[in-house]
Amino acid sequence: MYRSHNCGELNASHINTEVTLAGWVQKSRDKGFMSWVDLRDRYGITQLIFDSERTDKTVFEKARTLGREFVIQVKGKVIERESKNPNMATGDIEILVSELNILNEALLPPFTIEDETDGGEELRMKYRYIDIRRNPVKNSLLFRHKVSMGVRNYLSEKGFCEIETPYLIKSTPEGARDFVVPSRMNPGQFYALPQSPQTFKQLLMVGGMDKYFQIVKCFRDEDLRADRQPEFTQIDCEMAFVEQEDILNVFEGLTRHLLKEIKGIDVAEFPRMTYDHAMKTYGNDKPDIRFGMEFGELNSVAQNKDFSVFNSAELVVGIAAPNCGEMTRKEIDALIEWVKRPQIGASGMVYVKCNTDGTFKSSVDKFYDQDDLQKWAEATGAKAGDMIFILSGNANKTRTQLSALRMELATRLGLRNPEVFAPLWVVDFPLLEFDEESGRYHAMHHPFTSPKPEDMHLLETDPGKVRANAYDMVLNGNEIGGGSIRIHDKETQALMFKYLGFTEEEARYQFGFLMDAFQFGAPPHGGLAFGLDRLVAILGGQETIRDFIAFPKNNSGRDVMIDAPSNINPAQLDELQIKLNVK
Amino acid sequence: MYRSHNCGELNASHINTEVTLAGWVQKSRDKGFMSWVDLRDRYGITQLIFDSERTDKTVFEKARTLGREFVIQVKGKVIERESKNPNMATGDIEILVSELNILNEALLPPFTIEDETDGGEELRMKYRYIDIRRNPVKNSLLFRHKVSMGVRNYLSEKGFCEIETPYLIKSTPEGARDFVVPSRMNPGQFYALPQSPQTFKQLLMVGGMDKYFQIVKCFRDEDLRADRQPEFTQIDCEMAFVEQEDILNVFEGLTRHLLKEIKGIDVAEFPRMTYDHAMKTYGNDKPDIRFGMEFGELNSVAQNKDFSVFNSAELVVGIAAPNCGEMTRKEIDALIEWVKRPQIGASGMVYVKCNTDGTFKSSVDKFYDQDDLQKWAEATGAKAGDMIFILSGNANKTRTQLSALRMELATRLGLRNPEVFAPLWVVDFPLLEFDEESGRYHAMHHPFTSPKPEDMHLLETDPGKVRANAYDMVLNGNEIGGGSIRIHDKETQALMFKYLGFTEEEARYQFGFLMDAFQFGAPPHGGLAFGLDRLVAILGGQETIRDFIAFPKNNSGRDVMIDAPSNINPAQLDELQIKLNVK
């Protein structure tokens, strides 16, 4: 037995107890006649004391040789501490050490094991096993476990069955790029790693397992953006004999349960917002509704004056930035430059100061009088002391630009409080979206998403207008989950494949087994998937997912700690009957 | 809302309730003026009744068009059943249907959806989504979920944290063959899929996460034997600041908890048996101890007579088959042929009948008298009415052969009752095993397993005798888990690599990151892994794992349902910068 207690649990009630502790040397202080060591483990820190009078001489001298991160075991008596530390759980006591055993020495760590470390991102990744000793990372992993268990227990109690679906599956050219795995036993052939268990969960519905879930790794070989990982974890769910409403209720219930159990937060019933409304009001299908700043469309009150920029625009739209009326000219110019950056792409921005005396001062006073500006203030909900920012141009692009500005301003104004949680459902997504590159429509969600029956007649005439039984759960400006009611009859599915430009043969090759399955009695079904990495990060009040993943990869998809991917043995290639073809 | 109740919950207390059910047509009977349909879902079967007098004519006629496995929704009233079926949960009632809605038609299923189906293995695999509708498969998947949740909740309560380790890792030529994944972003380089998270869990210990577990998929590209899968699931565990005893206690606790919670069975403290004892007594390092038939070594009582076969043998060893004294000559001959089959490989077998009158009749009466045979009976624990079977030859081979015979006889004698659970620990495994092919010692477990300190001095002189701090949990003749205390100091690790024939460079290339990590303060640690597929099957009283896996692969590693692996698009190969090289 290496320890009788851990380093986080001893307090005044243990005084005079003989204990054995083990852990890492966080730091030591040596005053000649006395020395102290902070001993750390997963559970906390306990102070050890070595005293030239009370400690055996050999032990006392050995203690002075301890370096940072040495692994040690000590025996000793819990005693009351002279200078108590009320900020530490163990701050009332210390251990007067009688035996000291060095279990392992340690090189000096490449960065400090402190909440605020001096280690940069790459260094921390390379020595991730040391980084995990730091509270922020350690606590993120413990938190993730808590969320995962919360999800599993909640869904299990609701009758869901977690079913493991295979990782070695079949490559389908639709969607994102697959990671593939050459098969040695079937030379020339490849498995693919799942981008999601989508078809398997639908097959489980055909199989009658009417409430399925799985916390499962998924894989996408995409060029990585910041905060994207080639492997990520999904809470994958599917239900049979349900309508959209049933699914929204179950997973709203799950999310409220997590917020309550883990964060102690009660949230009201989730608002439901159509995709169209979200786009018009927030310029975004994952609106952050922790704050207002809703879009005010100004076409009717800003066009048909002499300002040609607005007159020629498809959309003129503004937002009111609360209490920003005192912005200096310099600050405003900087903000105009910000929206004109290529990442945002606005060609300019109009502003209106709403003075506290009820008057307005705008950058377009030449074209608009106080009455006009008054109407703008009404449309954007601006109050005295606010500032209105207005963009114009192509409707979609302008909305996206204004959404970016809205989020930026909210961040600067401190309106995105990570401890406030504002979830909602965005519903009625379009079924199809037009892809400029291929010149045809693609499934916005995936080819199994069911169209709304009442919109079916538009498939021929105005496919972009067809709405789907598809929904996203949005939390604080992040899509944390999304799903749909699936097509469950083969006629509608065949129609969908046709509209998506699949030949019958292609559809057969890629989805034959699913289409076959649907002939044997598919129930109505639907589901959704949550991104666990993101969900955990947001619940944890963080913006980035990396600290919630034990061993993340960098932006080139490399694990810099183990140095993967790597070259493999020529004999391995030979066995797999493949050759490198590096250009 | 598709249903108000499921098909397994209605009983006499619901009589006169209006309900809505949905499910699959299990079967229908039509008597002209009346017809019945058994409606099935995940939860059970409910009988529907359509009656020419009480049912609307259109509904009545529609009911007669229903085929097997049609998906339907019905509304109706719960009524008392005339001929009750006490074997069904819903056997007291039936539903007088007022509305019938065909949700989906179905082709005739390729095999019957019954507990005993007429479908063969390959057909069931091809239509796995239909197979899952059958109770034996469905219940196996539900059972697996229950076991997994039991494991997770037990370990979480004990302070373990489930941590997801990466799937895209680094290929190491040691051990079994890796599945590899070409990296598009790092052309010419490959990830490997993990054979186990071994090194990651050790790094987590270095990181201070002192109680780790994970239920995780692992991958081995091996030629498949029956009941092996290229992807399988492991309950992977590791602890820091522990000795072997601590680990055995925790996971014995887990297993007892599962047996108690899931099977309602109390088992006593697990026996602990050394590897040497297991091999001598059962010829096997995973002995089935639900029954006796322990080996009796007969060298001292059977050698130095005139029977040259025994005299020249390294080992003469027998078992007593209980109550087999009445076996006919023909049965005995068949058994002798059985042990002589190439799979077993014995060159012959001696037998002794222990007559009920206390006399003996053997196949070697020419060489041995009744006193000799009496000693054999004592050594094998044979009683009057038993039969003793004796093999001889090379010690290791003979033990393996007799072990196979022991298991075969026990199966034939019905001594392997799947509802009896006899777990044990086998401990003190050898550290190394000699590999004839490469002419050198290999790690029996893996290169991180710690030798017993008291055996270290034998490493130079008699490496095969060095015991490891390694242990297996054995249940009913199956190894369900195994692990070891790891090496945690770099000196011992370097020594091990040396004895395993690694050059420093090779060790560095393959395990450099682990050796680096160990320099930064590795705590003493150890762990184990359970095979979940096997554990669940055994707890479920089954011999084969396949029905406990939702979508298993066949013996060529193929998923015959989705037809994977498959050819991939030449453009995909091109992007990955690899070429086929099929011979």
From TrEMBL, chains A, B:
Main localization category: cytoplasm
Statement: the UniProt record of this protein carries the keyword Signal: no
Positions with a binding annotation for ATP: 220-222, 229, 479, 531-534
Keywords from the UniProt entry: Aminoacyl-tRNA synthetase, ATP-binding, Cytoplasm, Ligase, Nucleotide-binding, Protein biosynthesis
InterPro entries: Aa-tRNA-synt_II (IPR004364), aa-tRNA-synth_II (IPR006195), aa-tRNA-synth_II/BPL/LPL (IPR045864), Asp-tRNA-ligase_1 (IPR004524), Asp-tRNA-ligase_1_N (IPR047089), Asp/Asn-tRNA-synth_IIb (IPR002312), AspRS_core (IPR047090), GAD-like_sf (IPR004115)
Recorded GO CC terms: cytoplasm
Annotated spans, Aspartate: 198-201
EC number: 6.1.1.12
Superkingdom: Bacteria
The UniProt record lists the keyword Glycosyltransferase: no
Class of this enzyme: ligase
Binding positions for L-aspartate per the UniProt entry: 174, 220, 445, 486
PROSITE patterns attached to this UniProt entry: AA_TRNA_LIGASE_II
Gene Ontology annotations of biological process type: aspartyl-tRNA aminoacylation
GO molecular function term, any single one: nucleic acid binding
Role summary: Catalyzes the attachment of L-aspartate to tRNA(Asp) in a two-step reaction: L-aspartate is first activated by ATP to form Asp-AMP and then transferred to the acceptor end of tRNA(Asp).
Quaternary structure and interacting proteins, as annotated: Homodimer.
Similarity-based family: Belongs to the class-II aminoacyl-tRNA synthetase family. Type 1 subfamily.
Protein name: Aspartate--tRNA ligase
Native organism: Flavobacterium agri
This protein's encoding gene: aspS
